[in-house]
């Protein structure tokens, strides 16, 4: 299972995510080292990735929770008609959350949008980083810096609740407990 974190958006943006960051780095850093010594690159620069909006009928969200702590232990977001789809946002009426699944490089704009919509309301986030990287279909160009590489190969899954907490979440911050790993 990939790294997962659950907290308020404000806490995530300002807080210590060292465990989440370390788990991501354990996957991303070796992949970047392999990229640096690779010789198989695309010749041209790809078009920038874009994000698209799914209708609610296409959004599927599954959240696993620890029975003891109720902390999120897994998150699965997919498009109903295409389970391999990525780079999308949508709303899940069953979980009453807004979702993002896509490249790391696209999530900042999504978070900015959510902050502008939420205003002063509390935003709760469950975010999952993958167990492995994904090379874009057209490949990667040579010479990417580490952050550029991560922005293209890491697919994040993120569910956000604006003004209402996900079922089972308590008011204090939580991340996956050692009781449920």
The percentage of residues in β strands lies in: 25-35%
Largest sheet: 6 strands, mixed
Please state the oligomeric state of the protein chains shown.
Answer: single chain
Query: Into how many domains do the coordinates divide?
Result: 1
| Beta strand count | 8
Order of strands, widest sheet:
1-7-8-6-5-2
Query: Helicity range of the residues?
Result: 25-40%
- SSE-based structural type: alpha+beta
Low-confidence stretches: 168-178
Q: What's the average pLDDT?
A: 88
Spell out the helices and strands N to C: EHHEEEEEHEHE
**What distance separates the N and C termini?**
9 Å
Broad shape:
globular
- Estimated radius of gyration: 17 Å
């Amino acid at each position: 299972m990939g790294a997962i974190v659950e907290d308020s958006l404000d806490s995530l943006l300002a807080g210590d995510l060292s465990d989440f960051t370390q788990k991501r780095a354990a996957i991303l850093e070796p992949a970047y080292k392999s990229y640096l010594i690779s010789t198989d690159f695309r010749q041209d620069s790809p078009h920038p990735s874009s994000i698209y909006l799914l209708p609610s009928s296409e959004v599927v969200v599954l959240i696993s929770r620890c029975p003891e702590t109720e902390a999120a232990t897994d998150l699965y977001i997919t498009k109903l008609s295409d389970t391999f789809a990525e780079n999308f946002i949508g709303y899940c009426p069953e979980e009453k959350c807004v979702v993002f699944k896509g490249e790391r490089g696209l999530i900042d704009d999504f978070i900015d949008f959510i902050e502008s919509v939420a205003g002063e309301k509390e935003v709760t986030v469950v975010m999952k980083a993958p167990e492995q990287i994904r090379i874009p279909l057209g490949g990667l160009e040579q010479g990417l810096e580490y952050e550029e590489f991560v922005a293209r190969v890491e697919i994040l899954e993120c569910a956000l609740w604006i003004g209402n907490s996900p079922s089972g979440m308590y008011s204090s911050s939580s991340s996956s407990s050692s009781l449920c790993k």
